[in-house]
Amino acid sequence: MSVIILGIESSCDDTSAAVIKDGVLMSNVIASQKVHEAYGGVVPELASRAHQQNIVPVVSEAIRQAGIEKSDLSAIAFTRGPGLLGSLLVGTSFAKGLALALDIPLLDVNHLHGHVLSHFVKESPDSEVPEFPYLCLLISGGNSQIIRVDSPYKMEVLGQTIDDAAGEAFDKCAKVMGLPYPGGPFIDRLAAEGDAKRFRFSKPHIAGLDYSFSGLKTSFLYTLRDAKAENPNFIEENKADLAASLQKTIIDILMDKFSKAVKQTGIKTIAIGGGVSANSGVRNAVQQYADCHHLKAFIPKRLFTTDNAAMVAVAGYFKYLNKDFCDISLPPFARVTV
User: What is the rounded CA–CA span in Å between residue 138 and residue 155?
Assistant: First the structure.
């Protein structure tokens, strides 16, 4: 009998639902929220209200696209955390209500585990997936971690940011430049036209495999402040070079620790995940590193880099196979590490 999992993701500002059948993706529907652009960041109250409006039509569309009925579902997987608590409450409450109505199990998914396991979202039965163990560089607006993945149920954080995340550095530096929110994609596009060696910014000296991006942000801010004092048009005249130099610095920081982790563990399969893994510079750097060192690299489709329910459904699918069900009384949580 087929195992059919409905995944629900509502950790931030995207409402998403997906259906996976025996590990193969049948549908993946995402409703994004444009309202936050005017505020330069996600407004939690507005996000949770939008989730309330979106979740019923999104889930209905995911089930319709999958060509199934609600009664065909084996279980419901939902993002329990981390994320914005108000947003998580919407997805959690809906998942619990639907599971009760259908009398099927619940599967609570750690949002970060979803990103790590996104490489197991199969678009066809013969899709290639990583072999265990592999190293995953998880990079997003809230997290920068190097994770050793020994199985869907066993992961170990080898290094993580001690302050800001890579995605936060991209977005906050973009904001200083006057770019729209979210700034990361704009930096990526501008960087393609700029000279990455034009400007030099501070790089941290942190022991071990941990990351730090606060010093880089300060260095970038001071560079712009001092240059604007002499030339008020400095940012506008140097946008592409600033973006390229910033992006190169962030990638250098990421790859320095990631390469050390590869050497220390001897693992031959690497992967990236999270929103920043959509960045073209990051994707190219990881692939080039893998090619140079004869490693197997898994670079996710951009559709699976941002928050999406497909990764929640596949993480839930593994938990279902392991009979790791969730008690309906468990509340969502805002903060946690892998």
Answer: 12
User: Based on the number of CB atoms within 10 Å of its own CB, is 283 exposed (0-12), middle (13-18) or buried (19 or more)?
Assistant: buried
Fold designation for 134-303: Nucleotidyltransferase; domain 5 (3.30.420)
Q: What are phi and psi of 127, to 5 degrees?
A: -60, 140
Residue (of 303, 297, 275) closest to 285 by Cα position: 297
d(CA 100, CA 270): 39
pTM exceeding 0.85: yes
- DSSP per-residue string spanning 204-221: ---STT-B--HHHHHHHH
Given this chain, do its domains 4-128+304-321 and 134-303 carry the same CATH topology? yes
User: What is the distance between the alpha carbons of residues 184 and 174, in angstroms, rounded to a whole number?
Assistant: 7
Using DSSP's 3-state secondary structure scheme, residue 136 falls into: strand
Token pair in block for residue 97: 């209500």
Per-residue pLDDT of the chain (338 residues; tens, 9 = 90+): 899 999 999 998 899 999 999 999 999 999 976 655 655 667 778 889 989 999 999 999 999 999 999 999 999 999 999 999 999 999 999 999 999 999 999 999 999 999 999 999 999 999 999 999 999 999 998 899 999 999 999 999 999 999 999 999 999 999 999 999 889 999 999 999 999 999 999 999 899 999 999 999 999 999 999 999 999 999 999 999 999 999 999 999 999 999 999 999 999 999 999 999 999 999 999 999 999 999 999 999 999 999 999 999 999 999 999 999 999 999 999 987 55
CATH code linked to domain 4-128+304-321: 3.30.420.40
DSSP classification of residue 274 = S
